[in-house]
Specification:
- This protein is an all-alpha fold and 228 residues long.
- It has one domain.
- Helix content is 72%, strand content 0%.
- The chain is built from 9 helices and no strands.
- α1 packs across α4, α4 runs antiparallel to α5 and α4 crosses α6.
- The protein is globular.
- It starts with a helix and ends with a helix.
- It is found in: Cell membrane.
- Pfam families: Peptidase_M50 (PF02163).
- InterPro entries: Metallopeptidase_M50B (IPR052348), Peptidase_M50 (IPR008915), Rip2-like (IPR044537).
- Keywords: Cell membrane, Hydrolase, Membrane, Metal-binding, Metalloprotease, Plasmid, Protease, Transmembrane, Transmembrane helix, Zinc.
- Belongs to the peptidase M50B family.
């Protein structure tokens, strides 16, 4: 058993490193854009940094993404949220949208760059090149899933903040009030429902229903843009 685990260590790192980079840069981007738009809260707390130790949550950033990748093929995780005082932004409602889009935007760029670099690797390379090629493939998947998941229009996810910023007040205010229940809704939809479905012999995999088609679309778009 121990020998089998040791054999899997290179692949574990091939998953963990892209996941850490994706989540770290996602959070740092939020803090950077918030500082650019007038709120230096994240900067003063040392969160506008590329140091992953300032952002990672051991369970959500490393363990869970690796476990989900090996068991489901999907990747889900989180980092410590970057604090943003939206009231200090130059134009709070409009700038909230830019702050929210920064994280998914960085993930799209990382996925595209990973796909471009992947094109310079070959399937017949040595062990190191094969490991690097696998890590790049994971990077594309991790960044696309993180981007798509965060764009679900439910606060406190980035897509929810974007929706609150662009919808008319009659829709934005009720949506904003859902923020304190948002994570409970997500946990129920993505974890509890599939568990209940397995017990009942039903497919209630909301995760794949919601994320599957847009993830496939974005990976195909990245394949076209990168030429790979």
């Amino acid at each position: 058993m121990l020998e089998g685990l040791i054999d899997r260590i290179p692949m574990i790192f091939a998953v963990a490193i892209p996941a850490i980079l994706a989540i770290t840069l996602h959070e740092a981007a939020h803090g950077f854009v918030a500082m650019w738009r007038g709120d230096d809260t994240a900067w003063r707390l040392g969160r506008v940094t590329l140091n992953p130790l300032r952002h990672i949550d051991p369970l959500g950033t490393v363990v869970l993404p690796a476990v989900m990748y090996f068991t489901t093929g999907f990747v889900f995780g989180w980092a410590k949220p970057v604090p943003v005082n939206f009231g200090r932004l130059h134009h709070p409602r409009r700038d909230m949208v830019w702050v929210a889009l920064a994280g998914p935007g960085v993930n799209f760029v990382l996925a595209l760059v990973s796909a471009i670099i992947w094109g310079f690797t070959g399937p017949q390379g040595g062990a190191t090149e094969m490991w690097f090629r696998a890590a790049l493939e994971v990077s594309v998947l991790v960044n696309v899933v993180l981007m798509v998941f965060n764009m679900i229009p439910l606060p406190p996810l980035d897509g929810g903040r974007v929706a609150v910023g662009i919808l008319p007040d009659a829709l934005a205010f009720p949506l904003a009030r859902l923020e304190k229940y948002g994570m409970l809704i997500l946990i129920g939809a993505f974890f509890l429902l599939p568990f209940i479905g397995r017990e009942l012999g039903m497919d209630l995999s909301v995760f794949s229903w919601v994320l599957g088609p847009p993830v496939d679309y974005m990976i195909e778009l990245i394949r076209i843009l990168s030429g790979n």
